[in-house]
Design a protein that fits this description.
- The protein is mainly alpha-helical.
- It has nine helices and five strands, in the order H-H-H-H-H-E-E-E-H-E-E-H-H-H.
- The strands form two sheets. Strands 1-2-3 form a three-stranded antiparallel β-sheet. A two-stranded antiparallel ribbon has the order 4-5.
- The longest helix is centred in the last third of the chain and has 26 residues, at about 185-210.
Length: about 210
């Protein structure tokens, strides 16, 4: 499947992601959904999805850094040498992607966002931006409560009328986005069963791999 580039996630893609993410490598999910593995991981974090303990305990993950573990080169300085110093960013220099405060753009999921500041820490430039529909809600009703989200009543992310916005708990948002409420039960069961089967197949394969050769 050809990979999507900067395209919004469809409801069915999100359902597959919710059903399979916990026990499926991002590379396999990327192949299934036609997405870059990095995009799969990013969307999963946005949805609050996590890999299962069983997945993280697999042998292929033993080389990953654990919390509190130090890198082998901690405290060492690196100098690439050559003419690299001439092309490095200097203090105060702006990247070519810089845009002024007030700029508006639509993200890959179809949400309009606006640049509201220009002083986010390095590597955290996303903090310079805010979603316009959230700002509009707050102009009328005040700050969005903790663990709540502002959504579009009619599902149209370009319809920024205040009467089309609704603030709901994230738990309710998760329920509404669940494949069990979005799709007919046979479809939801099929998606769920596929995830169960994939996990079972992988467990059998791992068990065979761990058995001593006879």
């Amino acid at each position: 499947m050809a990979a999507h580039t900067g395209t919004a996630w469809t409801d069915i893609e999100l359902s597959w992601l919710e059903a399979l993410y916990a026990d499926t490598p991002n590379r396999e999910l990327g192949e299934l959904l036609g997405r870059n593995p990095r995009a799969v991981g990013l969307k999963a974090r946005q949805l609050g999805l996590r890999k299962s303990e069983a997945f993280m305990a697999r042998p292929e993950h033993n080389g990953r850094f654990r919390r509190g573990q130090s890198a082998w080169n901690k405290g060492q300085q690196f100098d690439s040498g050559g003419r690299s110093r001439e092309t490095r960013f200097q203090p105060g220099e702006r990247p070519h992607t810089w845009v002024p405060v007030g700029t508006e753009t639509t993200d890959a999921d179809g949400y309009l966002k606006r640049k509201v500041r220009d002083d986010a820490p390095p590597g955290m430039s996303r903090r310079n931006w805010r979603y316009v529909h959230v700002m509009l809600w707050e102009e009328h009703y005040g700050p969005v409560p903790r663990s709540h989200a502002v959504i579009f009543r009619n599902g149209d992310r370009t319809d920024l009328r205040i009467e089309n916005l609704e603030c709901i708990p994230r738990s309710e948002l998760g329920r509404r986005n669940s494949m069990w409420t979005r799709y007919p039960r046979p479809v939801a069961e099929a998606v769920h069963m596929r995830g169960v089967l994939k996990r079972r197949i992988r467990e059998i394969q791992e068990k065979r791999h761990e058995e001593p050769h006879r």
